[in-house]
């Protein structure tokens, strides 16, 4: 499959048309942003790591019956995915308190929940991705009731698969963000990426942060953290 015109450039990826209207090619960049693009930087090698890790996790999820946009990895940074129209919701699952949850509710990071939580943000940069509940999402016609029910069920299923997988690599899956998209026939599939940009990963023994929080919080060792996650997943 061949790259045609650039359809869209986001903060971390570019999306190109192909000769087939049902498929697009995603190209992962090393650019990193945080806080709605207020903080900008590059993380050398991130595009390669996020591309390969995200594809690996999509293949793993497909094996567990989760439908994803993944089609074929073309090279280190580029992947063919099914063309979707993105449901404008960021779906966040949490297993352990951290980040905006800890801040919003005034609790420390690291509290292990009895059951995972789910929350939605309305994907809208101008409004800074406000937190919304499923009734708001329905009122705003962001998705249909059946779609939201399906998304919630799938997100918790994804959490079960990924939590167990990462634990086998000595990594705690603290929280993560998912996006879903609709195919031309209306089927809802997992889209976007699953990577250290979109997940919090803590080393199971030391709780060392192995994700984008090192960039967000200026902790140093950003590339080392991404490389460590790459090593745990691919052994390289
Ligand atoms: P939060 O604690 O800042 O709400 O983040 C929850 C999870 O979502 C965390 O794993 C990082 C991820 N995330 C994104 O992928 N994109 C974003 O824009 C934000 C704010 C968080
Ligand atoms: N990617 C998001 C942004 O640029 C935020 C984040 O991941 O923290 O705003």
Shape: globular
Structural class from helices and strands?
alpha+beta
Q: Count helical runs.
A: 6
Looking at the structure, the CATH topology of the largest domain is D-amino Acid Aminotransferase, Chain A, domain 1
* Major beta sheet summary: 7 strands, antiparallel
Any guess at the CATH architecture of the largest domain? 2-Layer Sandwich
Mean pLDDT: 98
CATH class of the largest domain: Alpha Beta
Quaternary form: single chain
Cα-atom radius of gyration: 17 Å
- Indicate the low-confidence ranges by residue numbers: none
**Strand proportion:** 25-35%
Distance between the termini: 28 Å
| Number of strand elements | 14
Bound molecules: thymidine-5'-phosphate, aspartic acid
Helix percent reads 25-40%
Strand and helix order: EEEEEHEEEEHEEHHEEEHH
Our count of domains comes out at 2
CATH superfamily label of the largest domain: ATP-grasp fold, B domain
């Amino acid at each position: 499959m061949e790259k045609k015109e650039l359809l869209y450039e986001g903060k971390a990826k570019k999306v190109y048309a192909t000769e087939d209207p049902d498929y697009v090619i995603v190209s992962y960049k090393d650019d990193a942003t945080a806080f709605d693009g207020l903080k900008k930087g590059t993380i050398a090698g991130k595009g390669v790591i996020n591309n390969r890790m995200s594809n690996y996790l999509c293949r793993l999820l497909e094996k567990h019956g989760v439908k994803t946009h993944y089609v074929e990895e073309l090279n280190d940074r580029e992947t063919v995915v099914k063309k979707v129209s993105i449901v404008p919701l960021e779906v966040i699952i949490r297993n352990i308190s951290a980040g905006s949850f800890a801040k919003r509710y005034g609790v420390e990071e690291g509290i292990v929940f009895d059951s995972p939580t789910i929350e939605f943000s309305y994907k809208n940069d101008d409004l800074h991705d406000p937190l919304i509940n499923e009734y708001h999402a329905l009122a705003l016609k962001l998705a249909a009731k059946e779609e939201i029910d399906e998304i919630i069920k799938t997100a918790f299923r994804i959490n079960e698969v990924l939590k167990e997988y990462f634990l086998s690599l000595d990594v705690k899956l603290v929280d993560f963000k998912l996006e879903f998209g609709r195919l031309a026939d209306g089927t809802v599939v997992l889209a976007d990426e699953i990577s250290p940009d979109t997940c919090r990963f803590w080393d199971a023994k030391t709780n060392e942060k192995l994700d984008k929080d090192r960039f967000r919080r200026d902790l140093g060792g950003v590339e080392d953290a991404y490389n460590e996650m790459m090593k745990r997943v691919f052994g390289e």
